[in-house]
Write a structure and sequence with these properties.
33% helix, alpha+beta, six-stranded mixed β-sheet, 2 domains, Flavocytochrome C3, Chain A, domain 1, seven-stranded mixed β-sheet, 557 residues, FAD/NAD(P)-binding domain
Length: 557
């Protein structure tokens, strides 16, 4: 076991300014916005975002929302595809709940004015990797996330009892006994404040900034996972990190996502010589699950000693591509890629955190008063691999669910009261300029050792290196949000490496070159981790239930 300190900074809440709310939501992507709207039906809500409202991973999403058309058979097909892609670790009851409530979410969005793409007056359903049928709805071609964020923000701003605080960074969760009672934050002026709440919802998104190659924006630093871990909540499946197979590859440029929908529309993957290779790896070829496509691309890169492969868009046609994917077309043109050649250079990059805070069907974590939804949570939907375009749907369905649950509980509770929680005093001199260099070192290390392919030696190296720094976070001279983000990256990376080292098999997005086979008898189960006063504890939890009283729990070293 290893001891991880409870707080990142020294503070005395009795001396800090305090805000109070029935429900506080931390995060402003699809899950956080939807949770705030739902919670506001029952009382006052405070939404905190570390940037400004339009900025979130959601707003960058090119892919669509998986909402199966038609009746029962169509929904059951969506459930089957989700379970198949999840490689044995998804929970059928949770997946079925999401699919069953998909049309409620769709109707909410329509009522709030979201503009979905249509063809000849009918909804234009598309097909993406892992899906057996066309069931993906898009908006503005490849700008679904932007339109979704616009719609939810408009609905949020039309709700009078929601207060939004921008440029507010959550440093730690506050607990009283075994209960979460709010958060310690740094406001826009750089001052520490407390937020006291009856119910706290984490919707902080993922951790793509752990890796050198990522589709995620700068805000994706694993904050929510680290917050929950330090507070004592259980985490689940932290080894499961999804890599998107097709990200625009231009030396010296940022990595821009090339949506799965491009392959769904007819693009093929070819090597530098123009040879199509995906049929050699999977019967669905380019529409295989993302983990299969990502590993196939890496194998081809190694085989041909190349930096990238190419999306051949001749099957779509130049004019049709520009109409269907206007944002991708602009991005390619911005980086000097001539689409008339019909080839877009791509390679994999970190994309979506599947593991996260362990929650039940209501979004409740194992820490009383704390809920989580969206990418930061782990409810059993995605298992070991996420089906394309299920993430926005998850955020909508379970954001609404967790917000409604938190609001109802808060309404039934007595008013929150101010607390006096004191951490040991310490002073650390600021160390300007170190954080960018340390972040780059973390990203390079994670990409090399905890990326698409892993082995015991690399995982042990990361765990030891990050663990040494985490043993005493005060040694990091934490002096502001940039420093706190580095501490959160170290925490999340350490947890990911530790969990990946324990799972001695390959399953879905988790591929061990030293254990290449899937072992259902030994490893068709979750790895759960929590921090306690005794240290960090890992254990295994059998399927199918995520948070059931009669679950099997097997301690592991």
């Amino acid at each position: 076991m290893q001891t991880i300190p409870r707080y990142l900074t020294a503070f005395d809440t009795a001396q800090l300014p305090a805000d109070m709310a029935s429900v506080v939501v931390i995060g402003s992507g699809v899950a956080g916005l939807r949770a705030a709207i739902a919670a506001a039906e029952h009382g006052d809500v405070l939404l905190l975002t570390k940037t400004v409202l339009p900025d979130s991973t959601t707003s960058h999403a090119q892919g669509g929302i998986a909402i199966a058309p038609g009746g029962e058979a169509s929904r059951e097909s969506h459930v089957r595809d989700t379970l198949d892609v999840a490689c044995g670790l998804a929970h059928p009851d949770v997946v079925e709940f999401m699919a069953r409530h998909a049309h409620e979410s769709f109707q909410d969005l329509c009522d709030w004015g979201m503009r979905f793409d249509r063809r000849n007056g009918e909804l234009d359903y598309a097909r993406e990797g892992g899906h057996s049928h066309a069931r993906i709805l898009h908006a503005d071609g490849d700008a679904t996330g932007r339109e979704l964020a616009r719609t939810l923000i408009a609905a949020l701003r039309a709700t009078p009892n929601i207060r939004v605080v921008e440029n507010c960074f959550a440093v730690d969760l506050l607990t009283a006994g075994d209960r979460c009672v709010g958060a310690l934050v740094v406001d826009a002026a750089g001052a520490l404040r407390t937020v006291i709440a009856k119910q706290t919802i984490l919707a902080t998104g993922g951790c793509g900034q752990l890796f050198r190659e990522t589709t995620n924006p700068p805000e994706a630093t694993g904050d929510g996972v680290a917050l929950a871990f330090r507070a004592g909540a259980e985490l689940q499946d932290m080894e499961m990190m999804q890599f998107h197979p097709t990200v625009l590859f231009v030396n010296g440029a940022c990595r821009s996502l090339i949506s799965e929908a491009v392959r769904g529309a007819g693009a093929t993957l070819v090597d530098a010589a123009g040879r199509r290779f995906m049929p050699e790896y999977h019967e669905r070829a380019e529409l295989a699950p993302r983990d299969v496509v990502s590993r196939a691309i890496l194998a081809e890169l190694a085989k041909t000693n190349s930096d990238c492969v190419y999306l051949d868009i001749r099957g779509i046609g130049g004019d049709a591509f520009h109409r269907r994917f206007p944002q991708i077309s602009k991005s390619c043109e911005h980086f000097g890629i001539d689409l008339d050649t019909a080839r877009i250079p791509v390679r994999p990059a970190a994309h979506y955190m599947i593991g996260g805070i362990r929650v039940d069907l209501d979004g409740q974590s194992t820490l009383e008063g704390l809920l989580a939804c969206g990418e930061v949570s782990s409810s059993g939907i995605h298992g070991a691999n996420r089906l394309a375009s299920n993430s926005l749907l998850e955020g909508l369905v379970f954001g609404a669910r967790s917000g409604d649950v938190a609001g109802r509980i808060a309404r039934a509770e007595r008013d929150a009261k101010s607390l006096s929680i004191v951490s040991r005093a310490t002073e650390s001199p600021p160390r300007e300029g170190i954080w960018t260099a340390l972040t780059a070192e973390i990203q390079e290390t994670m990409w090399d050792c905890v990326g698409i392919s892993r082995d015991a030696a690399g995982l042990k190296y990361v765990a030891a290196k990050f663990g040494e720094l985490l043993g005493d976070p005060m040694a990091l001279a934490l002096d502001g949000p940039e420093a706190f983000e580095v501490a959160n990256l170290l925490t999340t990376g350490w947890l990911m490496a530790q969990s990946a080292e324990r799972r001695e098999e390959s399953r879905g997005v988790h591929y061990r070159v030293d254990f290449p086979a899937t072992d259902d008898a030994r490893w068709r189960r979750h790895i759960v981790v929590r921090r306690s006063e005794r240290g960090v504890e890992f254990r295994e939890v059998d399927l199918p239930s995520a948070l059931c009283a009669d679950e099997s729990q097997t301690p592991i070293a």
